[in-house]
Specification:
mainly alpha, Growth Hormone, Chain: A, globular
Length: 496
């Protein structure tokens, strides 16, 4: 509900000043701009270096391109590796099944499926707590700690002897990995503007598809170690991949950067530029932690609406990550060949996801491109279900992987763009991923069905806010009055 009255409104100040650097304070700490600073309604937001006296303008495309390149090189490679190893340590369960884990552990009936499902139950349950802990203690400490924990658990999987041990280890793995994916998406949103998010999320999410490609080849190679040290080949998959994660996790304690206000790889001028860019792009929402904002995230119906949309796509994503080698093997291919043949569909999916995200940022739209991605997935699943010929079934896996994986970066960007306030954003992203994961095996809803009304509703909300701003003569100069309202602020605009 939008507020209709605004007690204590100030008169609109003049708009012919620029923002001095000394007036900028930490955006991520929740401090607002200096009260005397203003933003030109049709001008550029600027700041001046206290050392050189030069002005940096938020609209200076050359300066922003240099800054973005620097951020990309320092932030994206490590978080992409972290997400790659996370998905690799999760999806190797399917590779181990094809490699003989079921027979070795004497799994009968739905034993494998139960162990696979319980991972996601606990993974989902700890999504929101993980994101809140990350915000409290810092991403540069929390993410590396997570990596070391789940790497140890993954390594210990090689020692399981029966179904009970397998279930226990999968539960601990779910708890250890919880929150990494939504946490990384939230972390990226603290550095980049709204229309720069999808491309960056797609780059680190591309590691998901890379893990499918790389995981198949790696598992095929590791299986050649069958019998070494009296361990079956599938046990070596968990042992080697888990130890690799631990090594990278230890390195991440030194290689992971914190937030813009304390990161050491940027100088003070660049730090100020980031703060100016984000302050304007966030429409001056509060960024500090408060439990009131946590309640906002849980109480807002849009959080659950995004979760339902994400759910429709999570079902095929998680299914493919676990069962693609089995699907290909059931088409009539040998087990070893199935490991290798699972690689090409993931490579194409990575390319399609990057293109889809680039188009989304370029044209500043989310919903329509999600619908297009889902059409690819629908075509693939239709062919896969309807054909009995191996070559057509294998061709269909290219469509299913491309459509499902291309949806996720754009959908996460959509949810992030349409959430005001950092704490609420952290809760919403974790909640949508967590709830969708929780019911991924029980409630297969269609993403496409939900996306169309969501786009229409966002359009109506923007028009309603624009009308209210005209009637009440509201502008960005009134931002302080509404900074605690999150995306309910009349100055906040939703991304279509």
């Amino acid at each position: 509900m939008l507020p209709l009255t605004f007690p204590g409104r100030r008169e609109r100040p003049s708009t012919n000043t620029i923002l001095p650097r000394m007036a900028i304070t930490s955006v991520t700490s929740g401090t607002s701009f200096h009260p005397d600073s203003q933003i030109q309604e049709k001008g550029l937001l600027s700041t001046r270096s206290s050392d050189t006296g030069e002005y940096y303008e938020a609209g200076d495309s050359a300066s922003e391109r240099r800054l973005l390149r620097k951020l990309d090189w320092h932030l994206l490679p490590l978080i992409s590796v972290m997400h790659l190893l996370s998905f690799l340590d999760r999806s190797n369960f399917g590779n181990a099944k094809v490699a003989g884990m079921e027979a070795s552990l004497h799994l009968r009936g739905n034993g494998f499926n139960i162990a696979a499902a319980l991972f996601y139950v606990f993974y989902a349950a700890f999504e929101v707590p993980s994101n809140l802990l990350m915000k409290k203690i810092g991403p540069h400490r929390w993410f590396p700690f997570q990596m070391v924990c789940w790497g140890i658990v993954c390594t210990l999987t090689c020692l399981t002897k029966n179904l009970g041990g397998l279930i226990a280890i999968r539960i601990f793995l779910g708890i250890a990995e919880a929150g990494l994916f939504p946490g990384l998406a939230y972390y990226i949103s603290l550095w980049y503007k709204k229309d720069e998010l999808a491309r960056r999320i797609s780059i680190f999410y591309a590691s998901t598809t890379s893990s499918g490609a790389f995981g198949g080849i790696l598992s095929w190679w590791i299986l050649k170690m069958n019998g070494v040290g009296h361990l079956a080949g599938w046990r070596w998959i968990f042992a080697l991949e888990g130890m690799l994660t631990v090594v990278v996790g230890v390195f991440a304690f030194w290689g992971m950067h914190g937030l813009p206000e304390d990161a050491k790889f940027i100088n003070e001028e660049e730090r100020t530029m980031i703060q100016v860019r984000l302050a304007k792009d966030r429409e001056h929402m509060n960024t500090h932690y408060s439990f009131a904002f946590v309640r906002q995230g849980f109480a807002d119906w849009k959080s659950y609406f995004f979760a339902i949309i994400y759910l429709g796509n999570a079902i095929p994503v998680y299914s493919l990550s676990l069962f693609l080698p089995s699907i290909i093997a059931n088409l009539g291919y040998k087990a070893a060949d199935a490991q290798l043949l699972s690689t090409p569909p993931y490579i194409l999916a990575m390319i399609v996801a990057l293109i889809n995200a680039w188009l989304s940022d370029k044209y500043k739209v989310r919903g329509p491109l999600i619908l297009c991605s889902q059409l690819l997935a629908i075509i693939g699943f239709t062919v896969l279900l309807g054909t009995k010929k191996a070559k057509y079934g294998y061709m269909a896996t290219f469509f299913t992987c491309s459509g499902t994986y291309a949806t996720v970066p754009v959908l996460l960007s959509w949810a992030s763009n349409n959430t005001g306030g950092d704490t609420k954003k952290a809760v919403r992203i974790a909640l949508m991923v967590g709830l969708a994961t929780w019911v991924v095996y029980a409630l297969p809803l269609s993403t496409g069905i939900m996306t169309n009304p969501a786009t229409t509703w966002d359009t109506r909300l923007n028009k309603r806010k624009e009308k209210l701003c005209r009637e009440k003569r509201l502008s960005v100069s009134d931002r302080v009055e509404f900074q605690d309202l999150g995306d309910d602020s009349p100055l906040f605009r939703f991304t279509l």
